[in-house]
Amino acid sequence: MSISKLKNDFSHTQESTDTGCHKMGRKVKELRLIQGLTQEGLGDKVGVSFQQIQKYESGKNAISIDKLLALAQALSVDLAVLLPTPIALHEESSFEHKDDESSREILELVREYKEIKSQESRKAVRSLVRSLSSSQ
Predict the structure, then answer these.
(1) How many CA atoms within 13 Å lie on the side-chain side of 136?
(2) DSSP states along 56-81
(3) Which domain holds residue 101?
(4) Same domain? 76 vs 113
(5) Mean pLDDT of the chain
(6) 62, 70, 78: which is closest to 45 by C-alpha?
């Protein structure tokens, strides 16, 4: 096998790995923002620096299994939520955003919803959203 063939095989593997790291990093960032955590706050919960959280979120560093477990626990989600899944499984998922503006709007809505203290008001908001989405 030639050296150029080995290089091509390695770069393909590296590209696939980067894609998985980026997907996991985006999920970590999305969940962190939804919960209103800073990178420093999440880092404290996981036992790493905020710079390391930045590297995880940007996909620059791979997340080890022990840190992935710690992140899932700190973000109060099942480990499977952080793992990259095939695109076909995401086709019906409303949480896989391709539009950055939509992502920002959703995160803003979630943050504002979390600020509502009254359960009655929260119920009214959910009812309004259901009503508006079914009339479209």
Answers:
(1) 6
(2) HHHTSSPPPHHHHHHHHHHTT--HHH
(3) 97-136
(4) no
(5) 77
(6) 70
Q: Which of 53, 71, 89 is the last residue of a domain?
A: 89
- For the chain, how many structural domains are there in total? 2
Q: Tell me the two tokens of residue 42.
A: 């999440």
- pTM comes to 0.55
- In the DSSP assignment, the letter for residue 83 is S
- Whether residue 81 is found in the same domain as residue 111: no
DSSP letters for 5-66: HHHHHHHHHHHHHHHHHHHHHHHHHHHHHHTT--HHHHHHHHTS-HHHHHHHHHTSSPPPHH
What is the rounded distance in angstroms from the CA atom of residue 26 to the CA atom of residue 111?
18
Task: For residues 14 and 75, state if they share a domain.
Answer: yes
Q: How confident is the model at residue 44 (pLDDT cuts 50, 70, 90)?
A: very high
- pLDDT beyond 70 at 30: yes
State pLDDT tens for residues 62-114. Answer: 999 999 999 999 999 888 888 877 543 444 444 444 556 677 787 778 788 88
CA–CA distance, 89 with 57 (Å, rounded to integer) = 22
Cα-to-chain-centroid distance, residue 25: 6
